[in-house]
Batch of 2 targets.
Target 1
Amino acid sequence: MKKATKFLTMTLAMVMTVCTLSACGGGASKGNTITFGTNAEFPPFEYVTSSGVIGEYDGIDMAIAKQIAESNGMTAAMENMEFDSLLVALQNGQIDAVIAGMTATDERRETVDFSTPYYTATQVMIVREDSDITVATDMADKKICVIQGYTGEICVQDMGYTYEAFKKGTEAVMELVNGKCDVVVIDSATAQKYVGDNEGLKIVEDPGAFESEEYAIAVQKGNTELLDKINSAIEKMLADGTINELAVKYTEEVMAE
Ligand code: ARG
């Protein structure tokens, strides 16, 4: 009996030591890992490749996520899912943070908290080279394609136009290439990649119609512990030029593919 008690005490002490070392049971970031969610359909920010910076995932966001974790002495894990599911997965606690070229919008701010923004983007129109679309209002009588849940969809909705929504950017662009739609509204950097990948397409900008957007990392509302970690890393990477370098590097890389 005495022996058993001693054994139990020792075991408990060991478990407690292990817990302290790995910070288990502490807060949203389980153990020493930050589990990010993304939708790896958005080059140059996130895409699947044979050897990525986090598992099979590579891109500007993936490199940023890795550095955020490392600069806090942690490891980054990545879960790939549909863009639409990301904020739900965050609310459920399935992931700790979302890094997905996600625009910090007021609507999203109602349910999650955003980090310091790390990239400025804008919506653009991808059209065929012979298109007569030169400004956003030219879309009025055209067949418009957007990607479900992206800010491009919200923009077109707000303009009051009808459209068709696709799950992936590549699917919408295929419709455009095949002449089944006339214009795809999507974020600028990703649009450049699609235009580079497909013959006969061009980008039309209309800064008067599309406001600039800021990409930021989302965490659960009130998770200041993780947000502080993320912000201190982002602010450092912005100040020392790391994010700028990553943006240039990955943009060149995906355009060369
Ligand atoms: N910036 C746009 C938004 O926030 C599109 C983001 C798409 N990102 C992605 N990883 N698929 O809605």
Target 2
Amino acid sequence: MKKKLIGLLMILGIGFGQQVRADEGMWPLFLISQLQDSMQARGLQLSAEDIYSINKACIKDAVVRLMSKQNRMFCTGEIISQQGLFLTNHHCGYGAIQELSTNEDNILTNGFWAKNQAEERPANFNIGLLAKVEDVTSMIMDSLPSGDDEAARAKAVAAMVKSVSAKLKEALGADKEMYVIEVVPFWAGNKYLAMYYQVFQDIRLVGTPPENIGKFGGETDNWMWPRHTCDISIFRIYADASNNPAKYSKDNKPYAPKYYFPINIQGPQEKSYAMILGYPGRTQRYTFSDGIKYYSDKERPKRVKVRRDILDIYEEYMHKDPKIKLMYADKFAGLSNYWKKFMGEADALKKLNIYERRKDEENKFSAWVKANNKTKYSEVISTYSEAYAKVDKIGLYGVYLQDGISNSQPMVFAMGMGKLEELLKDKSKKEEAKKEAAAMAADLDADFKEYYEPIEKKVLASVLMHLVEDLDNSALPASLIEMANKHKKNYTAMAEEMWKKSIFVSKEKFSRFLNSPSLKTLQKDPIYKVTNGYITEITGKMQPEMNKINSQLGKANRLFQAGVMEMSPNRLLTPDANGTMRMTYGRVLPYNGKDATFFKEFTTSRGVIEKYAPGDIEFDAPARLIDMMKKKDFGQYADKDGELHACFLTDNDITGGNSGSPVINGKGELIGTAFDGNWEAIASDFAFEPQFQRTICVDIRYTLFILDKFGGAGHLLNEMKIIR
Ligand code: ARG
């Protein structure tokens, strides 16, 4: 026992006298064989091979990567039957569910349960299954130019990443159409791995609770504990006759997975083992101290304001009209989710003294570099400082492009006109220009599906206001400043006038333009002038400076992380999240949120009844559900204490992208679905706080209760393996 403990301490790099830390870490799969002892000491009854093996079917084969139709990853899911059935969060299925909803058949509001496979509905996203991982570090690094030119190095890396991905894909031969290969840096470019995903395109919605169950508590409860949301939706993967990926076809069959999760409905106990596998998107746990300051004092507060103003505009109309509510539901949820997170981060970074703590670590690093004469790392700190001084000056221009301009639909249309303008300029390319315009015209119905003019006009005014009022005017396009001055900074009037003259504000006007595109019309369009002006100012004037920042940060990050590993060779340094599959292990655990406040590790239906507020936008719930809860009609889903447990906490380390991840007990059985983090650790992307960082999970028994007893879809249980 003792021996084991020492081994464990060595692995975690914990010296005696230091406090034993909870299990920070979104561990890459290739490291988990090294963690087997410490996982088993926590209560894991399986081997590392059972979780991740390159030779046999294992747990990782049941973990699903949700990807857009363009294969951009956004969430996680878990396969729970031999017929490709998988669970994910309601907020992950949200976009697809909204798209399948109409004003007449509003399944977002009412919920939906397919009675049989024929009733399942095509959902507009792909999923990926991790098929293979290959270390390609030497393929990328060996041919890099020597010398100090970081920009040249970065360019060479990018080129190598591209060519290696292409080469690996080519090597798949006839199978290559089925796979997406992503070559990804770990530890800021100290290692490169190629991830092979088998991508399935025929995904169908099987069931979802109504929104007032799946998003119960709304924005008020979001990022908070105690929680009572059944944040789940359920889909199925379809494959062709050979069980391979295929485009949607009614002849496709449910996919037979290599592995699927058995489900344990005995209920987790306090302190029992809990482990999560999934796809965390991005963390920045090694951010330099000045960067922390930039985020907490400037970047986050600005983003919060810009987003809040847009959200207020959405809300004004969404509350008035259910049609608008459905139309803007997904945009609202996405914008609001990170509005709240950014607000919490700005505050938490300060409260938790992250800046001071980083400074401390950096000072230690500098002292080590000096004492050991590690010249390789001698410029890391000064490079960081220089880079962040520049970020502080010009960083916001990029932020306002992301959170401002990109949230105004007419401006987004205007941003997409670059290629057409180039073609229109060249008289010999008239036919090509026409073709380009026709292709855009074909997308117009989809482009304007989530578009309501009164909202968009106000959003435009708000975005213009923030650009002019918040940013250094000398760097903004002259046309924008002139217009603002002409209207004496009355942005409503300014937007009104632009609206009258622009081709981007309605489907009719835009379509008229695309039917006979003219360079003159485009170039004098006021929204085009401002948007295009902003982009050219940024990409033109600021690009060299931005490139420099990126090279400096790239280099400093890579060297700093390499240096820290060299400085503490016994410490297994967890790499920042990068959209690849990770494992985090720990326990079901309560916490002390603040002075005199103890948070129990689970919630029950009692809390749903307590929070229930008929007619409220966030806390309404189906009366039938409340009735069932009052009668305590929970059947096999009741806990030993007689209650229906709704959600529970673990001390696992997750972030955005992990949403929908399987929460697994020590035997590898599914006990819940992860869906959120808690407020006290809202800055966890920057720093892990072992004493109160928690993952919020839907108890699998609440999921099955809603599916079976409330939703009447009990037939799905026949596909599952339930451990009672
Ligand atoms: N905070 C959750 C996450 O980032 C998303 C919750 C979505 N719900 C909402 N009310 N916007 O995974």
